[in-house]
Amino acid sequence: MLLELLAFALVGLAVGGGAALLLPHYFQVHRAVTLLTGLCSALLIGVLARAVVGGGHVAVTVTLSAIGACLLVSLLAHPERRRPEQRHREQRHPEEHGPEQRSSAAVTREPHHV
Questions:
Q1: Chain-centroid distance, C-alpha 49
Q2: Residue range 45-81, pLDDT digits in tens
Q3: What are the angstrom distances between the C-alpha of 55 and each of 2, 58, 100?
Q4: Residue 42: is it exposed, middle or buried by C-beta count within 10 angstroms (0-12/13-18/19+)?
């Protein structure tokens, strides 16, 4: 059981660390939050998988732990957010972008007359 917990912890750290290092523009939260989410979710799902599947299926429980950690870490991702450099570039040159990509600050409005 102790070796399985160690395997779950390593899988969780690998998932959280990989997400934080390989896709930093998707994960705007602090790296520690991503790492801890991967670690805790892999441990929790690994223990639950071991309780459901049984103690003799280490490969299955570690695989389920990795899949669950990936799913829960992906909840932290925000792909619709743009990097600050992109937002700054769009505000300086709004005419380079199509009308559907312009920021709301670049939209001109007609004055309202009563």
A1: 23
A2: 999 999 999 888 999 999 999 999 999 999 999 876 5
A3: 12, 7, 54
A4: buried
Q: What is the 3-state secondary structure (H, E, C) of 1-41?
A: CHHHHHHHHHHHHHHHHHHHHHCCCCCCCCHHHHHHHHHHH
Task: Confirm if 84 and 30 have CB atoms less than 8 A apart.
Answer: no
Q: Where are the domains of the chain?
A: 2-81
**pLDDT digits 0-9 by tens, 71-108:** 999 999 987 655 555 555 556 655 555 555 555 555 55
Q: Report DSSP letters for 61-80, one per residue.
A: HHHHHHHHHHHHHHTT--TT
Which residues contact residue 42 at a Cβ distance below 8 angstroms, ignoring those fewer than 6 apart?
A: 8, 9, 11, 12, 13, 15, 65, 66, 68, 69
Q: What are phi and psi of 75, to 5 degrees?
A: -70, -20
With 0.70 as the threshold, say if the pTM is over it: no
